[in-house]
Amino acid sequence: MNQVEKNGMQVQWKWEEDFLCVQVFAPKDGWVAIGLNSKSGLTGTNLIMGSVKNNNVKIEDRYVLKPGNHQAIESLGGGDILIEKRGTEDERGTTIFFEIPTQPNDEFHQNIKKGKEYFMLLAYSSDDDFGHHSMMRTEVKIIF
């Protein structure tokens, strides 16, 4: 597995044929988010947000139209590409897991290629409501 850690968050990923398996951990019991973009900044980021409350897992495929305005991709006319969605929450924090196709071929998702540079957004909140502002947000440059 490949891994990046920053500001208490940990993201691990591995390739499985035409899919990327991703696990995201944050040290709080609210929502956790990861975003991918080919350029730096929020606008145009495919944002995947997840939370676990009372053992109910909620993970959504979202798109950032502009800072402060992210919406479910399905509401924008696209499709939810997330598969194998699951998550846990314990005294350490929140963990979500999902798989995505590496070549979704639409305007809301990144085509992910090995060896290519991407900007990964990492964020979390102390609240499960996806509308609640993040308490930590950062960006890291990665190469898949």
Protein architecture, described:
The chain has strands at residues 2-6, 9-16, 19-26, 32-37, 46-53, 56-66, 69-72, 83-90, 93-101, 117-124, 136-143. The chain is built from no helices and 11 strands. The mean pLDDT is 95. The N and C termini lie close together (11 Å). With 144 residues, the protein is mainly beta. The strands form 2 sheets. The chain has a 6-stranded antiparallel sheet, with no helix packed on it. A 5-stranded antiparallel sheet has the order 1-2-3-9-8, with no helix packed on it. The protein is globular, with a radius of gyration of 14 Å.
User: In percent terms, what proportion of residues is strand?
Assistant: over 45%
Average predicted confidence as pLDDT:
95
Largest sheet: 6 strands, antiparallel
Number of strands: 11
Explain briefly what this protein structure is.
With 144 residues, the protein is mainly beta.
What descriptors fit this protein?
58% strand, 144 residues, 11 strands
List the helices and strands and how they pair.
Blueprint lengths: L1 E5 L2 E8 L2 E8 L5 E6 L8 E8 L2 E11 L2 E4 L10 E8 L2 E9 L15 E8 L11 E8 L1
Antiparallel strand pairs: 1-2, 2-3, 3-9, 4-5, 4-10, 5-6, 6-7, 8-9, 10-11
